Amino acid sequence: MTVIQTAPEQQRRSVGRFAGGRSLNEIGLIAAILVLYVALGSTAAGFLTLDNQLGMLRDAATVGIAAWGVTLVIIAGEIDISIGPAVAFSSVLVAMGAAEWGLGIGPAILLTLLAGTAWGGLAGWLRARFEVPSFIATLGIWSALGGLGLYLTDALPVVLPRSGLFEVLGGDVLGIPTPAIVMVVLFFVFAYIARYTGYGRSVYAIGGNAPAARMAGINLARVRVLLFATTGLLSAVTGVLLAARLGSGNGGAASGLEFDVIAAVVIGGTALAGGRGTMLGTLLGVAFITVIGNGLVLLGVNSFLQNVVRGVIIVVAVLVNVVLSKRARATRET
Q: With respect to CATH, is domain 14-333 assigned 1.10.3470?
């Protein structure tokens, strides 16, 4: 007897397959992180010390805060490569606003956050209004902010004024690094947005099939502007925290950060083609990237070779992602 599946039943099967593949990826990442901890704990002196673990939390926050926004961008089938220069310019902007322009601490931070939202929104507007590929739009932002940060400072650090607020932002709360606390809070915010809000569902729909999402009544232009405005805001948050941590703004800081962010998102299982990904996967990707980076430093690996290792990791992650995407697509079609 032939059994005819109803639409809800087919949808539940599709969701179940997706969830199964997602869980497999996350379990694999957890296993890989545990293996790294065992290997580095026995070979890298000081890896398991409390100070080093807290330092890794700070490093993870630098990647993770921006990664939450980039995860949604990539799920929507877009890309943002402006993160590194955006973070560096944000550190310069908050430092110059507080130290040289006489704005005061609070207004300088607010100005930086508003500026980050604005340049991110500009990239989104270019994508939405003129169909400029997001890679090109954010490449323009990458170049402009990178050059502007170095021009305004003559490539020299701008020292922050002494402030209790900056000490807290660059320090810790009850022994936990403040940037790590911000990262965790934002993780739960974005996890909720992605899973339980109409906006989050719209992001997945656009990444899965943009024309169909438009026909369903989703405002693609508004969602795209919001996506990139969000990544700009999160880059600014990261820049403020980085400046507080370093005690200065630096136009050359956060070099290559965009690659670590994208690598963490992709390693976490987010499909570059869009429509698939989770915040939990990105969190595990951030942890994986951070542990590897820290381990390479403690093992004394040459800094240039560290870039080689990161490059290999990105390529392998993309290959694995592509293979898993093809298998999931083939499963859905059967």
A: yes
